[in-house]
Amino acid sequence: MKKLMLLVLAFAMTVSAFAGGKKESGDSLEAIRKAGKIRIGVFTDKAPFGYVDAQGVYQGYDVYFAHRIAKDLLGDENAIEFVPVEPASRVEFLESDKVDIILANFTVTPARAEAVDFALPYMKVALGIVSPDSAPITDITQLEGKELIIIKGTTAETYFAENHPKIIQQKYDQISAAFNALKDGRGAALSQDNTLLFAWAIENPGFTATIGSIGSLDTIAPAVRKGNKVLLDWLNNEIRTTVESDFFHKDYQATLAPVYGSTVDPESVVVERGIVK
Fold this sequence. Notes:
This protein is of the alpha/beta class. The protein has helices at residues 2-21, 28-35, 61-74, 90-95, 110-113, 155-163, 175-183, 194-203, 229-242, 247-255, 257-260; strands at residues 38-42, 45-46, 50-52, 58-59, 80-84, 101-102, 116-118, 123-132, 147-151, 168-172, 189-193, 207-220, 223-225. It has a 5-stranded mixed β-sheet, with helices on both faces. The protein has a 3-stranded parallel β-sheet with strand order 5-1-6. Helix 6 (155-163) links the parallel strand 9 and strand 10 (168-172).
């Protein structure tokens, strides 16, 4: 009997040790502070939101916010390990603990919210369509039977599959590859977040965001691993109270205004304090 009790006790201790070894949400801030850096997943080719410039420096609207997060959490705005992500890898990078936060123009959807936890939003967005001026697409019905360029893992992929199945999706893993396909004439048009399309069309003469808004108005927010309540609460407090009440307008002026100029109303993009107006 004594031997049996010892075996039961040893089993219980093993289970407890296994559970203790698993990274829990409650220790996330402590682990980040102990490491002295925060791992943030960002895009490298989605200017002006997340990209790497000619000098190899991360830039963009999301990156501007990332530096503020590092400053307020660790006291050093450069205490960041930027981790390049693709649209389709964002959830997996959180689930596999490759990043602490995703700040990669991540649109909030019910399906994604089942896999990750979203903080308060900091942007508004809708889907749009960009097409060549030589063959403009001004109505979605014009795309039936044609190929629409789509980036895998985006809301455009889901939206067109569910609402316009007659439109053929030509899919790419990388944002840059998708836009190169459009420039090469491999598809009739490209659908992506309208905020990106406005900027891209400005910098690429011969193309226009011919349909500025499709479907519903959505929001973009930071995301953390499911159940990471401590980091989620910290982010929500950061957005709601810590940063200045006009922080994201400053972000817009520093990163988006030089691209958009007067063609886009900042109020159609910026969300302050997590309150969508």
